[in-house]
Design goal:
The chain has about 300 residues and is of the alpha+beta class. It has helices at about 5-10, 15-30, 35-45, 50-60, 80-90, 130-140, 145-170, 205-220, 260-280, 285-290; strands at about 35, 65-70, 75, 100-105, 110-115, 120-125, 180-185, 185-190, 195, 225, 235-240, 245, 255. The strands form 4 sheets. Strands 4-5-6-8-7 form a 5-stranded antiparallel sheet, with helices on both faces. The radius of gyration is 22 Å and the shape is elongated.
Length: about 300
Amino acid sequence: MSSADVAVKVFRNLKNEDLRVLQVIETAMSQHEFVSKEQIARFSKLDLARDTHFRLSRLSKLGLIYRITGAYVGYTLNYSGYDCLAINALVKAGVLEAFGKSLGVGKEADVFDALNPKGERTAIKFHRLGRISFRQTRRKRDYTTQRSASWLYQSRLAAEKEFQALKLVYPHKVAVPEPISQNRHVIVMGMIDGAELAEYKEISKPEKVLKQILRNVKKAYLKAGVVHADLSEYNIILKPDMHILIIDWPQYVTREHPNAQELLTRDLKNITRFFERKHMLKVELKEALSYVTGEGRITTWSHPT
């Protein structure tokens, strides 16, 4: 069960006092390696001996915080606890009502199907930087909250950057999920329906799909001034109607970035090589780059034997 699965499962059972304790720990982690029970009691305004002890024990059993013993007993948020704080904020903001099934668990994100209060489907993405390292340090029991705080912070930055990218490209009709809301390390987007391009063994019209991809990369570059910078067959969703969605934008750069051309070339190399290798459709990288930058067009679509 992923940390997001834990958060989704337990969130509805949390009381206001539980969330208050989580918020106190989150705030204090910006200045302390770990947060003492006395600090938590003082800032949450809960009785130390009775209420604070009960809440910390409950949150620990629910899998939302870690208890660390050393010079004194301290507490730190884990990803599930951070998830619950983000979920609570999104529910209060009126953009999240209920969760559906998991849409995917990756190295750096968990994505869930969800509903807003109007009953409309959305996608919820939980950024997860440092997930593998975090699990390893948990097993060894030598992690510090300083690392934990850093990973939570880096995940929030990744979410903020991806949400910013979506807001830049979506108005220009680039095929991306609609950006709806963002809180901490979590993004709420328009519905994602389909599978990664890499998962398709066959595509009936690969040329049509590749043209869609290049056309959208071109719109992002020329109209929004944005380069994906991490494009591959693993972050292009092919929907049942054979239209695409380009996802996973936290590494984007602007067209003015000193490495923009290099990153754009790498994006196009990844895609053209994939179609040549998997679907026997060859497009010259030089022509693809010329087309995307508005300097030319693609004259040859060949099927190597």
